[in-house]
Amino acid sequence: MILPVVAYGHPVLRKVCDDITPEYPGLEKLLADMWDTVYNSNGVGLAAPQINKPIRLFIVDTEQIVEDFEDEDRAKYPNEKPIKQVFINAHMVDEWGDKWAYNEGCLSIPKVREDIQRHKLLRIKYLDENFVEQEGEFHGITARVIQHEYDHIEGKLFIDYLPLLKKRLIKKKLDDISNGKVKVDYRMIFHK
């Protein structure tokens, strides 16, 4: 089932989310619905707060980004391997490497894209969909998508990394999103 995406301005997007246990009700269905939702909206990741669930859960599928690389991108990220992964109760271990800019967007902040600086490498601990402990090291575009989704479960948004002047320049767009004055091809929840 395709779920509505929570729009910028909703308080759930600013919550530090809670860990869950294997007994979390309806988890298997929730994960299936999250995959349906991210693919329906042409996203590459989705965090539980974006579907109004304040829990430490996000999904990432970087296959379409890596497959769509232009020759220039393939030269920049020659070892990029796409992932399709569930991250439960994720906690960042470390981020390192030079910071680099990439034009990011977010399903909760439609029609806003900005260059955001993030570290090239990260190490993260998490549980997979079977609640098996994992620790992984990721780089490049995949690391960026994980960082973006991880921020959601920490109550952060990509626009938080913008300089004050940039934030002022997009304030009207953000206000319009908060007030439901945005047209997208997927369902959204607006905070009243």
Describe the protein.
The longest helix has 15 residues, at 164-178. The protein is 28% helix and 32% strand. The protein is globular. It has a five-stranded antiparallel beta sheet with strand order 2-3-4-5-6. It has a two-stranded parallel ribbon with strand order 1-7. The chain has 192 residues and is an alpha+beta fold.
A few lines on this structure:
With 192 residues, the chain is of the alpha+beta class. It has five helices and seven strands; from the N terminus they run E-H-E-E-H-H-E-E-E-H-H-E. It has one domain (5-186): Peptide Deformylase (Alpha-Beta Complex), CATH 3.90.45.10.
| Mean model confidence by pLDDT | 94
Encode the helix/strand succession as letters. Answer: EHEEHHEEEHHE
Q: Strand tally, please?
A: 7
Approximately how much helix is present in the residues? Answer: 25-40%
Output the number of helix runs: 5
Which spans have pLDDT < 50 for at least 5 consecutive residues? none
Find the CATH topology: Peptide Deformylase
The biggest beta sheet reads: 5 strands, antiparallel
CATH architecture: Alpha-Beta Complex
Biggest sheet, strands in spatial order? 2-3-4-5-6
CATH class categorisation = Alpha Beta
Q: What does the overall shape look like?
A: globular
As a percent range, the share of strand residues is 25-35%
Task: Set out the fold topology.
Layout: E1 5-6, H1 27-40, E2 45-47, E3 57-61, H2 63-67, H3 71-76, E4 84-106, E5 109-127, E6 133-139, H4 140-153, H5 164-178, E7 188-189
Parallel strand pairs: 1-7
Antiparallel strand pairs: 2-3, 3-4, 4-5, 5-6
